[in-house]
Design goal:
Number of helices: 10
Mean pLDDT: 91
Largest sheet: 6 strands, mixed
Distance between the termini: 54 Å
Number of strands: 20
Shape: elongated
Low-confidence stretches: 1-7
Strand order of the largest sheet: 12-10-11-18-20-19
Radius of gyration: 27 Å
Helix content: 25-40%
């Protein structure tokens, strides 16, 4: 499977309406095609009084109690002019919050300029928080990686390697030990702030392919406790066939890292050969990575003790 970087161009208004439970008061001409491409929103109080310097029309526009009270102090003709000025801009949508009444001038201008007008019962703060969180997630940079992702002792472990090296077999053994499957074969990884989150593509969620057996549904076979919808990516474990000509780190002082979407993730390479219990080694790698986060590095501690011993301390 080819790795693929993507930056989503935007979120369709229809997706926002469905996800956030919004009511559609007026469908704009671009309702099916308009995209919200940035996570920030705008409360157009200044714009309603004619100040459009530094106005970004790409943002979702939200009217709350403060804007509504300001509009209440205007005459109908002034409100009409205010909404006429706002709707001349190619905004993705205007949302009226708090279940506030929509002024007739707002609706008439939305229809005239064919702009999308939405309604929500949420308070302005609550809706703003919801929409920013949602947009931050769906607009985040993303990549699809070939491999499997499991939650092992609370660590999100991405298992990579060539086809046939034993990734799925290792995953099913770890699941049988009580760890949880997030994704097998393909992992959609998304960067949100300074964290990486991975999940399975919807089509193959909960499925694992085992050579000789075929495809199994882990959730149906082993229960809900065996799966997890999403996990952080804390560690990469790369499986490769044992090579006699390659030196494998036996001490662990040199920590390798792999850059994924601009974030450096610890990576360990595990050579695979008959007789090695790979699942156990992956478990230990996950626990060791967790210990390092809490400041305990066994390899460094041993190296310090050896140095003190060599110096006669």
């Amino acid at each position: 499977m080819i790795e693929q970087d993507e930056m989503k161009g935007g979120v369709h208004i229809g997706e926002l309406v469905e996800h956030l439970g919004l009511s559609v008061v007026n469908k704009g001409a671009d309702f099916e095609t308009a995209l919200v491409g940035i996570k920030d929103v705008n409360r157009p109080g200044l714009q309603l009084v004619g100040f459009f310097d530094y106005f970004d029309p790409r943002r979702l526009q939200i009217i709350g109690m403060a804007e509504s009270k300001m509009l209440e102090s205007m005459t109908p003709e002034q409100r009409k002019q205010s909404f006429s000025r706002l709707f001349t801009y190619d905004i993705p949508a205007l949302v009226v919050s708090r279940d506030l009444d929509i002024y007739p001038e707002c609706l008439s201008m939305a229809r005239k300029y064919q702009r999308t007008l939405l309604h929500t019962t949420d308070t302005t703060v609550s809706f703003t928080t919801k929409v920013i969180e949602y947009l931050t997630y769906v607009l985040a940079p993303a990549i699809t990686r070939h491999g499997g992702l499991l939650d092992i002792y609370g660590e999100g472990v991405l298992i990579t390697g060539d086809s046939g090296v034993g990734k799925s077999e290792t995953a099913i053994e770890l699941i049988k030990r009580g760890h949880r499957l997030v994704a097998d074969d393909a992992v959609d990884i998304r960067r949100v702030a300074d964290q990486l989150y991975g999940k399975a593509p919807e089509l193959i969620r909960h499925y694992i392919e085992l050579r000789g057996i075929g495809v199994i549904n882990v959730q149906q076979l082993l229960g809900m406790s065996a799966v997890k919808p999403e996990s952080q990516v804390d560690l990469v474990v790369h499986l490769e066939r044992w090579r006699e000509d390659k030196f494998y780190d036996r001490f662990g002082l040199d920590e390798e890292r792999e850059n994924i979407l601009g974030i450096d993730v610890p990576i360990v390479t595990i050579p695979v050969q008959p007789g090695r219990n790979i699942a156990t080694i992956v478990e230990v790698a996950a626990m060791n990575n967790r210990h390092k986060k809490y400041g305990f590095n066994a390899a460094q501690q041993l190296a310090d003790e050896l140095e003190r011993h060599a110096q006669g301390g």
